């Protein structure tokens, strides 16, 4: 199962569970998360999004699947719709980031109200390197959180923020040791739940009144990019390089630092 759900008091733990794919967001996982979010609206809860595997958050979308998506898929807004649904959860949400949050993983964290992380957390938006754009919210959520200059560097150059840099930039609200990160997330949920659920719900609505978004443009732009041969070439090259690295590790060769270029993510 790609998503594991557990209730701990006022916290609803939503655990990403695709460790062999570094929690890449394929369409089946997106559908499962939509179902979880729909069910979570039945009673007040603080949503805590995390990974069931230490040292991982989410590497973005599954590139092998993304490679085959066309303009019609882009206009369906597969991944952007998920991030909007996370943001629309009636009560506060928390992302517990213990490892890379890259591409769509970063956008998933951005869709949450609060983010806490371990020293292993890192964030990046490498989409343009794969011939697409960060169409699931990073084009507007990222500048809101870290400011336009840093957002430009992350989107234009693929700059990676480690945990300390993310904390300084405001992308992470708090840093904790990895072995207690989930417990700290639950404690934060309990602190939030000590307030009025109705007041929290109305506060979320108030904070969204002037919510800017480029989602409509992003969908159209992504549809154009999904039909561009450059996207196909870049993603096939990415998959070939990833396969080469895996074979190199299997043969006992040098790791070269592992998969630092993650599966990317767009609106689908």
Automatic annotation (TrEMBL):
Residues 238-258 have a biased composition (Basic and acidic residues). Pfam families: ECH_1 (PF00378). One of its GO terms (molecular function) is catalytic activity. Signal peptide: none annotated. GO terms for biological process: fatty acid beta-oxidation. InterPro entries: ClpP/crotonase-like_dom_sf, Enoyl-CoA_hyd/isom_CS, Enoyl-CoA_hydra/iso. It comes from the Bacteria. Residues 238-268 are annotated as: Disordered. Belongs to the enoyl-CoA hydratase/isomerase family. This is Enoyl-CoA hydratase. It comes from Actinotalea ferrariae CF5-4.
